[in-house]
Design brief:
The protein has 461 residues and is α+β, with helices and mostly antiparallel strands. 70% of the residues lie in helices and 10% in strands.
Length: 461
């Protein structure tokens, strides 16, 4: 019989071959089956994380499209959807206010009233007619006497009265000019306030949409366990904050529209055209006291005081009296004669007191004008200082703060994208950027108000 023969070396080689073959099979199994399955599981979870975070990144990158806010405030309007309401430009509002405002209508009526009253300065006292009948001549005849007389003030008194009443009409015109100045300033104030609110609302609307999406992304990440509840709460808080800001700003804008509607006397709903620059033109500087409506009124008031004093002085002069009498004597009529005389103020102490009082009032008017001029110059200097201060502030925002806000926002978003900062920290940095823009709007409002104040002092020329 044939016997299988083998050597010790062959016994060693057989286990070695078995090991090599088994290793190859194991390696092949790991490579083709185990590693792909593990990789699929690991990468699947990672893709879920990236997907959730990627959604947040997409939303966050949308925010970059709004970083043009700072330049948009300075150069162009936001593209607001037309509501179909009547649109009014600043020029139209000013024109409508000048023709419709009730205060101006009242002032114009006062001017017409004062003008009509001038003719009363030429008014003469009432004439008198006296008659008597009876035994005026003899005891046996019945006779009559008819007397007509008229008192005429000294002609220079009538002239002085006309001058004083003409001055009163001029004062009414100056008061009307003050009202016109007030109306124009109020219209500009509320128009530019609405313009700033319009810009702010457009940005808040974009932020509301953005943070709504960010909250949705944070909710998905929280539900998948990729983040803690703090991120979701931060997103919700930020969203509600902007929603509340928008609600409050819409209420403020509604109030501003109501105020503007009052000054232009617009009964229907409307919206401003909003094509004007957000910041007002500063205009030419320089105060001319003679053009300020209040100073003009006070100057005319001083002149009016002098004319009133002149009227009281003229009252010391005698009045002229003329009369005609017709009568009968012993029943023979046609007995006529003319009489004339003077009414002399014998007791002139009271009238002299009136003259002294008028002169003191005249001095008071002069003092009031001097005081008003001093106050006006102080107010103008304060307005000039305010304009310069806010102009410098706006220059700082334009050159430094607003670009820093854009950079701060971009850097925060990029750092969050690269995992360098957490979501809450990113929100804190973007909040700081928003606060810079919000402060910028406040500075713009303050600057415009300072310009309007200065224009009001100059007289809105």
């Amino acid at each position: 019989p044939m016997a299988l023969s083998h050597s010790p070396g062959a016994e060693v080689q057989r286990p070695l071959a078995t090991v090599v073959i088994g290793g190859l099979i194991t390696a092949t199994f790991l490579t083709l089956v185990v590693i792909p399955v593990v990789y699929s599981i690991v990468m699947g979870r990672r893709e879920q994380k990236l997907k959730a975070k990627g959604l947040g990144m997409i939303v966050l990158f949308i925010l970059l499209s709004f970083t043009s806010f700072s330049s948009g405030l300075r150069t162009s309007d936001f593209g607001l959807v037309s509501s179909g309401l009547r649109t009014l430009s600043l020029r139209t509002c000013l024109s409508q206010a000048s023709s419709r405002n009730a205060l101006l209508a009242t002032g114009l009526a006062d001017v017409k009233t004062a003008e009509a009253f001038i003719q009363s300065g030429k008014e003469l006292p009432k004439g008198t007619v006296d008659a008597q009948y009876g035994k005026t001549q003899t005891y046996y005849s019945q006779d009559y006497t008819v007397m007509a007389s008229q008192s005429i003030p000294w002609p220079t008194l009538l002239k002085a009265q006309v001058k004083s009443l003409t001055s009163a009409k001029v004062m009414s015109e100056k008061r009307l000019k003050i009202t016109q100045n007030l109306v124009a300033s109020s219209v500009k104030f509320y128009y530019y306030q609405i313009l700033a609110q319009q810009k702010n609302l457009a940005f808040l609307a974009s932020q509301d949409s953005l943070y709504t999406q960010m909250k949705r992304a944070a909710t998905i990440k929280f539900q998948q366990g990729e983040t803690n509840r703090l991120e979701l709460m931060a997103a919700e808080t930020r969203l509600r904050e902007f929603q509340q800001k928008r609600i409050a700003l819409e209420a403020d804008q509604k109030t501003a529209y109501q105020n503007l509607a009052y000054w232009i006397n617009e009964p229907g709903e409307f919206e401003i055209e909003g094509k004007e620059s957000l910041t007002m033109e500063s205009g030419a500087a320089g105060l001319d006291l003679s053009k300020n409506p209040t100073i003009e009124l006070l100057a005319e008031q001083v002149e009016h005081g002098k004319l009133l004093t002149a009227v009281e002085i003229e009252r010391l002069k005698p009045d002229l009296r003329i009369g005609v009498t017709t009568q009968s004597i012993e029943n023979v009529g046609g007995q006529n004669f003319v009489q004339a005389g003077l009414a002399i103020p014998i007791f002139g102490k009271g009238q002299k007191a009136k003259i002294a009082s008028a002169k003191l009032q005249e001095e008071a008017f002069v003092s009031q004008k001097i005081q008003a001029e001093s106050a006006l110059q102080t107010d103008y200097k304060n307005a000039e200082a305010a304009v310069a201060k806010y102009r410098a502030s706006l220059a700082y925002y334009a050159s430094t703060a607003l670009p820093q806000a854009v950079l701060l926002e971009k850097t925060a978003l990029k750092s969050y994208q690269q995992g360098e900062i957490e979501y809450v920290e990113m929100l804190q940095n973007t909040q700081q950027a928003w606060q810079i823009r919000e402060s910028y709007i406040q500075e713009v409002n303050a600057y415009n108000q300072a310009i309007i104040t200065r224009q009001t002092l100059i007289g809105n020329e």
